[in-house]
Amino acid sequence: MAMKKLGKGLLRSKTFWVNLLTGAASVLAAIGGISVLPPSVAPYLVGGLAVVNILLRLVTNKPISGV
User: Fold this and answer.
1) 11, 19, 38, 53: which one has the fewest Cβ atoms less than 10 Å from its Cβ?
2) Cα 1 off chain centre by
3) What CA–CA distance (Å, rounded) separates 15 from 55?
């Protein structure tokens, strides 16, 4: 009998993609001098991302079970 998969793959995780895109933007800003937003917006962006991560966590009902 085949075992049932308990969760979803990492690449289907909204939280993963939000954090990956945020990290990529941060790296571009740090090493490439490419910034999509002015520095005065950074504190609001960080706070907003915290809220987004909390909301994504609240709607998550499956664990990650692989890629």
Assistant:
1) 38
2) 35
3) 9
- This prediction has a pTM of 0.71
| 28: Cβ contacts below 8 Å, ≥ 6 apart | 34, 35
Round to whole Å and give the CA distance between 47 and 45: 5
Give the chain's domain count: 1
Q: Which helix (H) or strand (E) holds 44?
A: helix 42-59
Domain that holds residue 52: 10-59
Q: Decide if 2 is inside a domain.
A: no
Q: Could you give the CA distance from residue 20 to residue 48 in angstroms, rounded to a whole number?
A: 15
Confidence at 51, pLDDT banded by 50, 70, 90 = very high
